[in-house]
Amino acid sequence: MKSENPSISILMPVKNAEPFLTDCINSILSQTETDWELLAVNDGSTDNSKVILEQFAKADKRIHVLDNDGAGIIDALRLAYSRSKGNLITRMDADDIMPPIKLEILKRNLLSFGKGNVALGQVKYFSDEGLRDGYRYYEAWLNGLSENGTNYSDIYRECVIPSPCWMVFREDLDTCGAFNSDVYPEDYDLCFRFYGNGLKPIPSSEVLHHWRDHSSRSSRNDPNYADNRFLDLKLHWFLKLDHHPKKTLVVWGAASKGKALAKGLLKAGVDFRWMCNNPNKINKHVYDKLIENVEAISAIDDLQALVAVANKDEQANIREHLTDEQAFFFC
What we know:
By secondary structure, the chain is an alpha/beta fold. It has two domains: 8-225, Spore Coat Polysaccharide Biosynthesis Protein SpsA, Chain A (Alpha-Beta Complex); 247-329, Rossmann fold, CATH 3.40.50.720. Helices cover 37% and strands 21% of the residues. The protein has a seven-stranded mixed sheet, with helices on both faces. A six-stranded mixed sheet has the order 12-13-11-10-14-15, sandwiched between helices. Strand 1 (8-14), helix 1 (18-29) and strand 2 form a beta-alpha-beta unit. Helix 1 (18-29) packs parallel to helix 2 (49-59), helix 7 packs parallel to helix 9 (227-241) and helix 9 (227-241) packs across helix 10 (256-268). The radius of gyration is 22 Å and the shape is elongated. The mean pLDDT is 94.
């Protein structure tokens, strides 16, 4: 008989996190939910991260320290997951902080809604170095989606599920392929697999994760998180999950991201029309593809538009002219 109060496995890759690691683990130890295990994987740290981990492990048997037998965050997550025993799975970043109620709330919501769902929390960025405006915008945008559980509605813009603030049933994670994929960025790829397998985001109105920004964080420095990786991933999953070949596909925008989308579609052999409102580009050929005036879109009855326009005012105007089913915002 399965437990009515399943335990939690926390998967945490650790690489050179010494300045933040003690605060991180203390926040886990302070959780109001106590039935958890922490699988902390040392990913080739050259600082004192492993020493700190081992000190905590000696003091609390719920903490297990592992050495990555591969390299990088995906291998670390695979190892942690393979050694985990809990029926509820969540992630943690070694430089972040959990509010005391995080595990309790995620677990309660997940058990209340049941399998086929993913429990989420809102996030709050903080930094000792000063917070960039981009992170403030991402925080507000992401929390707005999580408030209503409408995360997937904007999935092609950015990762809509915060990588260290979700919880799912082990069975559902296995259905989604867990950490078997070699694709980076791994958190965004997993988000698409949650979406593709129908896991429903549970609405959340509480801040359950404090996300630290600092100059050495992986998302700023690791080439696996470069812009082109994100765009390639988005296009791959769009063609797999949402593309309808019988509808007219339009790329809206001819700046750098529009060009990257056009190149990707040409490489994949997918037919499309390319449009923009820049008079310097209209009626020109790029990659042997004609760029049309966006006014031509009004004559298309059944369409899908990949919007590669960064300007917020222009985006708002596009939303007025296209339905949510027609427009897929890629920036």
